[in-house]
Design a protein that fits this description.
By secondary structure, the chain is of the alpha+beta class. 31% of the residues lie in helices and 29% in strands. Helix 6 (95-102) packs across helix 7 (104-114) and helix 7 crosses helix 11. It binds adenosine monophosphate and glycine.
């Protein structure tokens, strides 16, 4: 079988790396891929993740047997629908089901129907109405742009003045464009955050072990929100023994509603959870693997990933047993100075082979490119240095030992991935 992986980040490198180990897979294409996907023997194809027609035409011409979209954008644009219309097996939800991530208002509505615990929220699209809601609210409060805003659409406001600024910027000043034309005014939950990702076949959800992301740029959760500066699995806040129960509470009811709506959810359904004093509550859904959560999770996965994905597409996950190493895995993102704001490209990446020589270490490329046979940075997040270890502490030690072998001019990383729970 030939496989097409869509996307260009560390998650997609990890998907290519894992799929390349499958006996079912002869050849992998990455669109557009990066220096890391090339290093796995994949062929990079110069197609953007939002070029649905180009991707489907390529997949048909090439005789692709499995399409694997990494990021949310192609899913929310309808890549899966177009694949299905062309008899191309695609591991991801259709456009309707992907709206669970594409619209926070839609996700709230589905959670309400499915009786999934989540924060109370009011949807507003008029500034006057927003002002009335804010006047009656308690603080802090959370203001969320409805649509996709590259992880920047959530603002936690400490008082009424901040909240008014936030809703005004979204509803009447066009911050986030159409994505901010509707806004959720949401109760602020307190607790620790953890992620539960499940592989779904439309009806059955198979939980993966828990993971925890680190969204802020700098140590001790300082600095701006990023796509994620590091992740590890499992997270002791959500032990394996609780996975089934939390999936029953936060994932399975959503699958039921999606199936009733005639859009059974196939792919990865990711619940961002807040563990509150009154139990887990859903902060958001993603309709794909997280980046960087994918990297430690796939390092731990023992199954043939291509087989699991085909089982999900064909609705036969009930017979699949997902198996993971007992070891922990932890990934540290190395990013270019300036990220998540503007940053320069083209810095040479040194020390990679020394890092990769260490046992239990795998360096996934998030934003790299091969230029004149030299590996250089091409993104804000450059690498996700990931390691296994017999426990979280050991995985952390191994990952940081590898990070220290790498030298990239004007780059940074967090020193405390995994430390909060240790
Ligand atoms: P989201 O994109 O909805 O996951 O939000 C991004 C981040 O904002 C989450 O990871 C939380 O840290 C925070 N957040 C979102 N919603 C809430 C909420 N209702 N209460 C407290 N924090 C929240
Ligand atoms: N790491 C968070 C995400 O992929 O959305």
């Amino acid at each position: 079988m030939q496989v097409l992986v869509v996307g260009s980040g560390g998650r997609e490198h990890a998907l290519v790396w894992k799929l390349a180990q499958s006996n079912l897979v002869d050849k992998i294409f990455a669109a557009p891929g990066n220096g890391g996907t090339l290093g796995e023997g994949a062929t990079n194809v110069d197609l953007k993740p939002n070029d649905l027609d180009g991707l489907v035409k390529f997949a048909k011409d090439q005789g692709i047997g499995l399409v694997v979209p990494g990021p949310e954008l192609p899913l929310t644009l309808g890549l899966t629908d177009l694949c299905l219309a062309n008899n191309l097996p695609c591991f991801g939800p259709d456009k309707y089901a992907a709206t669970l991530e594409g619209s926070k208002a839609f996700a709230k509505e589905v959670m309400r129907k499915a009786h999934v615990p989540t924060a109370q929220a009011t949807l507003v699209s008029e500034l006057d109405v927003a002002k009335q809601v804010l006047a009656k609210s308690n603080y802090p409060i959370v203001i969320k742009a409805d649509g996709l805003a590259q992880g920047k659409g959530v603002l936690i406001c400490q008082n009424a003045a901040e909240a008014l600024d936030a809703v005004t910027s979204m509803l009447s000043e066009g911050r986030f464009g159409q994505a901010g034309a509707k806004v959720l005014i949401e109760e602020c939950l307190e607790g620790q955050e953890v992620s539960l990702l499940c592989i779904c076949d439309g009806h059955v959800a198979k939980p993966m072990p828990s993971a925890q992301d680190h969204k802020r740029a700098f140590d001790n959760d300082m600095g701006l929100n990023t796509g994620g500066m590091g992740a590890y699995s499992p997270c002791p806040l959500l032990p394996d023994s609780d996975l089934e129960q939390v999936a029953k509470l936060t994932i399975e009811p959503i699958l039921k509603v999606m199936a009733e709506d005639k859009h059974p959810f196939v792919g990865v359904l990711y619940a961002g959870l807040m563990l509150t004093a009154t139990g887990p509550k859903v902060l958001e859904y993603n309709v794909r693997f997280g980046d960087p959560e994918c990297q430690p999770l796939l390092m731990r996965l023992k199954n043939d990933l291509a087989q699991v994905m085909l089982d999900a597409i064909h609705g036969r996950l009930s017979q699949t047993k997902l198996e993971f190493t007992a070891e922990s895995a932890l990934g540290v993102v190395v990013a270019k100075d300036g990220y998540p704001g503007s940053y320069s490209k083209g810095a040479e990446i040194l020390g990679l082979s020394e890092a990769e020589k260490l046992p239990l270490v795998k360096v996934f490329h998030s934003g790299t490119d091969l230029v004149d046979a030299k590996l250089v940075s091409s993104g804000g997040r450059i690498l996700c240095v990931t390691a296994l270890g017999e426990n979280l502490r050991a995985a952390q030690d191994h990952a940081y030992e590898a990070v220290k072998k790498i030298a990239i001019d004007k780059s940074f990383y967090r020193h405390d991935i995994g430390s909060k729970v240790l």
